[in-house]
Amino acid sequence: MEILRILGLKPLTDVKSVLCVQPHPDDNEVGAGGTLTRLAANGCQVCYVTVTDGRYGGSDQTVSADERVRIRQAELRSAGEIVGVSHHYELSFEDLGSYSEYEVMSALIPILRDVEPELVMTVDPWAPYEAHPDHQKVGRAVAAAVLAANSLIKPDCGQPCTVPMIAFYASAYPNTYVDVTDFWDAKLASILAHKSQFANDEWPLLVQYFEHQAKQYYGAMQMAQGVAEPLSEGFAEAFKVLSPRQLHFFPAALHM
Ligand SMILES: [Zn+2]
């Protein structure tokens, strides 16, 4: 689309550094594990920010919340090794806690100014039926931080920096598809590395759901590429990619 070129948005797969901010320790893999693995394999620096400690995730009531935090920290590292994550930031807000969007934005600004990523990725907080407060607050805080990092706020937290692109996964309004067929097995392995969340009887059903969704995205990708008879033989992930300019006073962003 011409407007994307005007806004300076390059192909998602060409970026050399990405900061991927997740509410919980497993969101990045579920939303974008194939794309992140593909980027890392191409030499892109992949950094993770995990906002909450995930202390209330899963269904195992035999371990304490503190123990669950430690288990999930180890799983976060294991999944990150599969993806190729080079650095982890953990903000350790309480899972489902009363922290504010402003607090998360404030914590992210110095990280953004330090890393200066070409791309910031996070969950889409504006998906119509997204009811999880952590996903709502974190997605919005990331978008706000991308804007604020280039302002004069917090002059003691690094030099203002421009983030060229933001990509939301789990979006109801995707405008970009990434072929992750060659990285599908790695994506599933990275998700399953979160054993406390996924190593249970529901996993085979979840895989079916993930694969169904990814095949639909693959077909949508081919349609967007003008393929006459789209196939659903491969797997793709979907994103809403925007320029920071589209994050403020730009209602048309919904349809772009
Ligand atoms: Zn989550």
UniProtKB/TrEMBL annotation:
Signal peptide: none annotated. SUPFAM superfamilies: LmbE-like (SSF102588). One of its GO terms (molecular function) is hydrolase activity, acting on carbon-nitrogen (but not peptide) bonds, in linear amides. Gene3D superfamilies: LmbE-like (3.40.50.10320). Coiled coil: none annotated. Pfam families: PIG-L (PF02585). This is LmbE family N-acetylglucosaminyl deacetylase. It comes from Alicyclobacillus sacchari.
